[in-house]
Structure formats: structure tokens, C-alpha cells
Amino acid sequence: MIASVLLQAGGGNMTQSVLMMVLIAVVFYFFMIRPQTKKMKDQKKFIEELKKGDKVVTIGGVHGKISEVGADFFMVEIDHNVRIKIQKSGISLDNSKALNIPEKEA
């Protein structure tokens, strides 16, 4: 595939073509792969730090408080004596973070 791309470049300098492909790969890494990897690490760290009593929001939008922590699930109390079992991967990092930040007193 790379050879066909370089052949289509025509009579241009081969060094320029290779340099352009390397540049595209570097841009792709810094704008696509690196941010996604960082977000996945943050999500994993956040889920590992959750404990009983923390308020969470699921990916589906269900709000609740963690009542039990298992190996790969949380029991989330969504109302008085109403509990649901949620996979740890089903917790939304972005929405849950805001719930556990203490409000500043005025």
C-alpha cells in the first residue's frame, strides 16, 4: 500500500513523500491516540477510587449512591431500598465527578 502511494506521488522527491507520511502519523498520534489513552487512564483511576457512599451517574443517565462495591460491579441505590447492579464500566466519569465535589460555602 505504501509503495502504491509513493508511486502515485509521481516524479516528486521520495524523501518528501516519506516525510509527509511520517508527519501525518505524528499528527494522528497527538490528536487522536494520545488523548483517548489519557481519557481511558483517567476513567480507570476514577472507577478504582470510588467507594461506598459516593454519588454516581451511569452512562445511561441513572443517578444514585454506591451502596456496595464488588469485584467488577457496584450496587447503586437509586431510591430508598431500590438498588441496581451496575458494571464498573457503566459509570460516567464526566457526569459523576461533578456530584462528588463539595460545594463552597458562601
Automatic annotation (TrEMBL):
Write down what this protein is called: Sec translocon accessory complex subunit YajC
Annotated keywords: Cell membrane, Membrane, Protein transport, Translocation, Transmembrane, Transmembrane helix, Transport
Instruction: Please give the superkingdom of this protein's source.
Output: Bacteria
Query: Do you know which PANTHER family this protein is assigned to?
Result: SEC TRANSLOCON ACCESSORY COMPLEX SUBUNIT YAJC
Spell out the InterPro entries in the cross-references: Preprotein_translocase_YajC (IPR003849)
Q: Where are the transmembrane segments?
A: 14-33
Biological process GO annotation list? protein transport
**Which gene is annotated as encoding this protein in its UniProt record?**
yajC
Q: What GO cellular-component annotations does this UniProt entry give?
A: plasma membrane
Q: Name one Pfam family in it.
A: YajC
Its topology with respect to the membrane? Single-pass membrane protein
Q: Which residues form the signal peptide?
A: none
